[in-house]
Amino acid sequence: MLRLYYVIFISLPFVIYYIFTAHHIAKHKEDYTEEECYRIARKCIRIMMRNGRIETKASGMELLPQEGGYVMYSNHQGKYDTLGIMSAHEKPCTIVMDAYRSKLPIADSFIDLVNGSRLDKTDMKKQLKTILKIAEEVKNGRRYIVFPEGGYDHNRNALQEFLPGSFKCATKYGMPIVPVAIIDSYKVFGINSLRRVRTQVHFLRPIFFEEYQSMSTQEIAKIVKERIAAVMERQQEVSSEG
User: Fold this and answer.
1) d(Cα 176, Cα 166) in Å, to the nearest integer?
2) Which H helix or E strand runs over 145?
3) pLDDT tens digit string along 74-124?
4) Of the candidates 89, 92, 69, 91, which has an alpha carbon nearest to the alpha carbon of residue 81?
5) Helices (H) and strands (E) in the chain, counts
6) Which of 75, 206, 208, 212 has its C-alpha lying 20 to 30 A from 5's C-alpha?
């Protein structure tokens, strides 16, 4: 957490400006396009990365669907995960976040800025309603980041079970599923150090409806996890050889 406090401290004037800007936009959403809000969000991310001495190497952007909505399913390691993915994703995308965590300072403003969704894990009916809402938005062209592991405490570069229900955001209307592998993302805010840190984001080949239409969400979760695991293992082998 040392890096997080450090970034907030040295960026305090900008953090205050960003929070007020996010609140203003939230009250006047009709005056701002999704593209404009996303540009502001990515500018915030770039400033945080520069001040926090964070570098993210990305690959596979050319594999992303060029048209329409889709859901990115990524492994989960920490608070930086969404920011790392967005830093490499040029077109507007947004996030579904645990309702409790989304109310924390700065996170609350950020999720409002990118018009994300909050998932109440304490109420099954509200969860279903949120998943259906996300599915409808994706059908209408929005792009979402979903973390099917649910939480990230102590995950590091190890994968946990992927929750099959989270894939209904994509399968409800047969939308593309984009597996995303993140590596070393936990180091950004999970290690008490201010040394330069490098993370990786890898967008993998999308899984289209034609490929998964006969599968259950359990089978889809298994395939997505296996593909992410394969990339993580390969990248770790490359790192050890280097």
Assistant:
1) 14
2) strand 143-146
3) 999 999 999 999 999 999 999 999 888 777 778 889 999 999 999 998 888
4) 89
5) 11, 7
6) 75
